[in-house]
Write a structure and sequence with these properties.
The structure holds 2 protein chains of 2 kinds. Helices cover 24% and strands 29% of the residues of chain A. Chain A is of the alpha+beta class. In chain A, strands 5, 6, 7, 9, 10, 12, 13 and 14 form an 8-stranded mixed sheet that branches. A 4-stranded antiparallel sheet of chain A has the order 1-2-4-3, with helices on one face. The longest helix of chain A is centred in the N-terminal third of the chain and has 17 residues, at 23-39. Chain B is of the alpha+beta class. In chain B, the strands form 4 sheets. A 7-stranded mixed barrel of chain B has the order 12-19-16-17-14-13-20. Classes of the chains: A alpha+beta, B alpha+beta. The interface between A and B is large, with 47 and 42 residues.
């Protein structure tokens, strides 16, 4: 894979890994970020992985463009030998339908399915977190089946509660904050994706996966209560087999 | 009450800001922070603070503030005609204040964003390692919002005697001037090749007017449309402060402190870091134009600015 490097002003470098939304390209980006973390190059502040590029921010009075470029190219050379840490699958419990998922019916109808089938299809897939953006903690997920793809609402809602799980076209996602939005909401998770007062304010990380697990109202309330007390521990498992998924 | 700063009137948009919330952009967290980072950093150094301490960013129409403790303050950035108990207050200079004194701002004379720094800093609780207010996310700063009448801002403690940090100033030749016509230096790319040759020429030779739709997220410009080769959309990626996005309409937007971490429009160029304060100080109706420079030149300027800040820092430590 040939990487290309470009300056983004005098405090950023953009490394392009490809031109398509592709799980393999994204996996390379994830491995690169892990190497970058280990390397801890003086002057590098932080980096933003996206679908097919990484943007690295740095302080030019500590390290200058050409020196940083050499360090970054070296990391790329070592990438082949690098075994990426196994991805994690974060299990997100979701209460589907009812007041928590007011658009579950319309998603089912538009696709000629029962609501049970929609829940089944939505919760059996492991979704790759390609990147984070839009809102703090918002995951851009890949891998949803087209069988439940549904266009956005014609008139967006003024207020979508935090934790809402939605579908927009062939994408699925979770709202980390209350926000206006046009995604079709099929359920809600009591798990907090974003909590600025937590030690790790953001639950999810690029390169990991999400799988949704259907729950009932009783379990929803229990988890909600634990989250309020700050004692809920999210279920995670290591991804087996890797690449074929997503 | 016997401590802090009381907000008698809030002004148009007064927020608590430090240099920004770094380290969380990969999770989608907006950086926020002072729009004019140089002015905030200098203000802090003049009153003996670390340059990243929190101060107030004051926009166009300033607040009316009463001090309830003795301290040392500095006003930097825009000239909004500040007075302390009705006496004109110099900018870029640290001033001793007594309990009961009232700070007012009368009218914007030059620039639009002034900074108030106070010895010890505005001592709100840091969230994700920063005291900056992120307005859209309703988080950080003072209760995640702009200041309102009746707010009492806590002030941190300082170990330096007030007499040692009073009367410091930034040398007049280092004080920036904010003009109505500004040429910003840019580094082209990363998507400059998404534009026609004519489009790039238009961008580098035209004047663009700052529109009233500009805010902390970005400065929206109006002028000759910049022509794309094909589309204006890319697969979303990172956006730096000063990145100039050009959507399909061809009118450029310069992304600033409250920008989203990622975006899906072509970026024709990025304004160099030492010129970012000039955008922060530009008002609707002002005109901006662009000149391409090489990265080596931009980084030399960034290093020179850092040297200046370090000199102020060393003087600060000596007291």
């Amino acid at each position: 894979m040939t990487l290309s490097y470009q300056p983004l002003g005098d405090t950023g470098i953009r490394i392009q890994f490809g031109n398509t939304i592709d799980p393999e390209i994204n996996r390379q980006i994830h491995s690169y970020c892990q190497r970058l973390e280990k390397e801890s190059i003086p002057g590098v502040i932080e980096w933003v992985p996206s679908y097919c590029a990484i943007t690295i921010y740095y302080k030019p009075y500590i390290i200058q463009y050409h020196d940083l470029l050499q360090r970054l190219k070296k990391i790329a050379q070592q990438l082949q030998d690098h075994t990426a840490a196994p991805a994690e699958v974060i299990i997100l419990p979701v209460l589907y339908g009812g007041e928590w998922g007011p658009d579950l019916q319309s998603v089912a109808q538009k696709n000629g399915l029962s609501t049970e089938e929609v829940i089944q299809l939505h919760s059996e897939t492991k979704y790759l977190i390609y990147m984070m953006g839009f809102l703090p903690g918002f995951p851009y997920l890949g891998g949803m089946t087209d069988k439940i793809a549904t266009p956005r609402l014609e008139v967006p809602r003024q207020r979508v509660p935090s934790g809402s799980v939605g579908i927009a076209g062939s994408q699925t996602g979770v709202y980390p904050l209350e926000s206006p939005g046009g995604w079709r909401i099929i359920g809600r998770t009591p798990v907090r994706l974003y909590d600025p007062h937590r030690e790790d304010p953001i639950l999810l990380k690029t390169g990991n996966y999400i799988q949704f697990r259907p729950i009932d109202e009783k379990e929803y309330k229990e988890i909600e209560e634990k989250e309020a007390q700050g004692i809920y521990v999210v279920d995670k498992k290591l991804l087996k087999g890797d690449r074929s998924i997503a | 009450m016997n401590k802090g700063i009381e907000v008698l009137r809030p002004g148009l948009l007064t927020t608590v800001q430090d240099l920004g919330r770094y380290g969380y952009q990969q999770y989608g967290m907006v950086v926020a922070g002072a729009m004019d980072a140089f002015s905030l950093a200098v203000g802090n150094l003049l009153v003996g603070n670390p340059r990243n301490a929190a101060g107030l960013e004051i926009t166009l129409i300033g607040p009316e503030l009463q001090f309830h403790q003795e301290s040392v303050i500095a006003i930097t950035g825009a000239d909004l005609k500040a007075t302390l108990d009705n006496h004109p207050l110099p900018r870029w200079k640290s001033i001793y204040v007594e309990p009961g004194q009232i700070l007012r701002f009368h009218r914007p004379q030059q620039g639009i964003r002034a900074y108030l720094c106070i010895a010890g800093g505005i001592d709100v609780k840091p969230i994700m390692k920063s005291r900056s207010t992120f307005l859209k996310g309703k988080m950080g700063g003072y209760q995640g919002r702009a200041l309102q009448s009746g707010d009492i801002l806590p002030v941190g403690s300082t170990h330096l005697p007030f007499s040692q940090i009073t009367g410091r100033f930034l040398s007049p030749r280092e004080q920036p001037v904010y003009d109505k016509k500004v040429t910003l230096r840019v580094i082209m790319g990363p998507q400059a090749d998404a534009f026609t040759e004519e489009g790039v020429h238009t961008f580098l030779t035209s004047s663009y007017k700052v529109t009233p739709q500009s805010d902390r997220m970005g400065t929206r410009l109006e002028g000759p449309p910049i022509q794309h080769k094909e589309g204006a959309d890319i697969i979303s990626d990172g956006i730096a402060p000063g990145s100039i996005q050009v959507p399909a309409g061809g009118q450029p937007i310069i992304l600033l402190a409250d920008r989203n971490t990622t975006g899906g429009y072509t970026k024709i160029a990025t304004v160099i870091s030492v010129d970012l304060p000039l955008i922060a100080q530009s008002a609707p109706g002002h005109t901006l134009s662009f000149r391409a420079v090489e990265i080596e030149e931009a980084q030399k300027l960034a290093i020179a600015q850092e040297k200046l800040l370090r000199q102020l820092e060393i003087i600060g430590r000596k007291g």
